[in-house]
Automatic annotation (TrEMBL):
Pfam families: ABC_tran. SUPFAM superfamilies: P-loop containing nucleoside triphosphate hydrolases (SSF52540). One of its GO terms (molecular function) is ATP binding. It comes from Zobellella denitrificans. This is Copper ABC transporter ATP-binding protein. Keywords: ATP-binding, Nucleotide-binding. The keyword Nucleotide-binding applies. InterPro entries: AAA+_ATPase, ABC_transporter-like_ATP-bd, ABC_transporter-like_CS, ABC_Transporter_VariousFunc, P-loop_NTPase.
């Protein structure tokens, strides 16, 4: 069931097109990666979902309602939002900030303190925010976004400034929310870092959705090559003639081959028939490669012919 529904949204600012007929849906318990370069339209889309802007055309529905209407006010407590550059009242302590924001959201301040503890800010809760590092401010921002166990969570570069352990803990919390049905939209430029946590991806450019789907769908659409790396002894000498056009790299103890997706069976046959193979590794196109292809196409303007 879709909890966020965007249909044919358009938006202009001073005659400049920010969104040009985008349509997206996000289901309960789904994590959508909303990706795109600066100026692609991601922030405008987020503001429309939050009800901070009204579209010039199209329809926005969040939890079945228009978020820009006064009647939606009672639903706002179920939305969590973390912007990229988070800021708070520097003279307040972390405990005061989270307590104040909890009360604004109709939640007990104790929940805010629990979140601070979960995010490693328990010892700093009594310190003024002006003494916090960038990572600590980011964790305070995450705590306020998670107040009230939101049904919709909008995150813009949420792990900036977090150390690896804090980042891992953050994604564990996101998984717990997802399991409870929370819909998450995550914007990030750290594509390799977010790839394992996304159910689907929507790539935006010039105010339009350029591509959307899970990674398997995007790989099938892109037709980018798959890579097989074989490790063993005397592989290059033993390689049959019909496979040599697939070789991209060869060295001592390994060879690397690339082929079109539909040629994976050919590579699988090679594993079976080539003597000396000790182990092998398949590599599908990753999210950064798919993003590059969707936004810019082949870098050299043509595709490689893999033994066609």
């Amino acid at each position: 069931m879709s909890i966020i529904h965007l249909r044919q949204l358009s938006k202009q600012f001073a005659g400049k097109i920010a969104l040009d007929g985008i349509s997206l849906e996000v289901a309960e318990g789904e994590v959508l990666g909303l990706l795109g370069h600066n100026g692609a339209g991601k922030t405008t889309t987020i503001k429309l979902i939050l009800g901070l802007l009204r579209p010039d055309g199209g329809e926005v529905r969040v939890m079945g309602q228009d978020p820009a209407r006064p009647a939606f006010r009672g639903q706002r407590r179920h939305i969590g939002f973390l912007q990229e550059n988070v800021s708070f009242y520097d003279q307040l302590t972390g405990a005061e900030v989270i307590g104040y924001l909890a009360r604004l959201k109709g939640m007990p301040p104790l929940q805010g303190m629990t979140l601070l503890e979960q995010l490693g800010l328990k010892e700093a809760a009594g310190r003024r925010v002006k003494t916090y590092s960038k990572g600590m401010r980011q964790r305070l921002g995450l705590a306020q976004a998670l107040l009230g166990e939101p049904r919709v969570l909008l995150l813009d570069e949420p792990t900036v400034g977090l150390d690896p352990l804090a980042t891992q803990h953050f994604y564990q919390q996101i998984e717990e929310l997802r399991q409870r049905g929370c819909a998450v939209i995550l914007c990030s430029h750290v594509l390799a870092g977010v790839e394992p946590y996304l159910d689907r991806v929507a790539v935006m450019g010039q105010g339009r959705v350029l591509a959307a789907g899970d990674l398997a769908t995007l790989r099938a659409q892109s037709q980018l090559p798959v890579t097989l790396t074989l490790h063993g002894s005397n592989l290059q000498a033993a390689l049959p003639e019909q496979y040599r056009c697939l070789v991209q790299q060869a060295g001592a103890g390994h060879i690397r081959l690339q082929a079109r997706p539909e040629q994976q069976r050919v590579l699988a046959e090679l594993i079976c028939c080539l003597p000396g193979v000790e182990h092998f590794h398949w590599q599908q196109p990753n999210l950064p490669e798919l993003y590059q292809h969707i936004c810019y196409g082949a870098a050299d303007g043509h595709t490689t012919d893999y033994c066609s």
